[in-house]
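Service request form, structural biology core

Requester: graduate student, group of Dr. S.
Request type: structure prediction, single chain
Budget code: on file
Notes: please return the result as structure tokens.

Sequence provided:
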Amino acid sequence: MKVILLQDVPNVGHKYSIKEVKSGYARNFLLPQKLAQLATESAIKGIEAAKLKAEQERAIHEDLLAKNLESLVNLRVVMEEKANEKGHLFSIVHEDEVAKILKEKHHIEIPAKFIEMDKHIKEVGEHKVKVKDKEFILEIKAL
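Core staff response, request fulfilled:
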């Protein structure tokens, strides 16, 4: 049975691809979960337009990400977190929080999945954070 995948499905294919799958798998899993639809002629024409639109949006997002990465060069980000007198933070700083602070303070939108940290930050001080091949300084101060 031919189906059009509406989402990425592991071991089957990527979104908007047309795949031949067993009819039981399509009827019992892919179609009820809304992961796919039947590959009729009208559906194929409609999906080609959606695929083109998705490619254009992806290109725009990639351009925006590249511009945001360039703005990270020589950037110093300051965060204030609660810490004890020894400089140990009460909560760990992880990728999601770094992405949030970049967006709030510097209006740079970087998805957390692109932020690379050797380990989560647990102490006050200066820490280097990488985003793809760019690097910036994250300074954490105690409140």
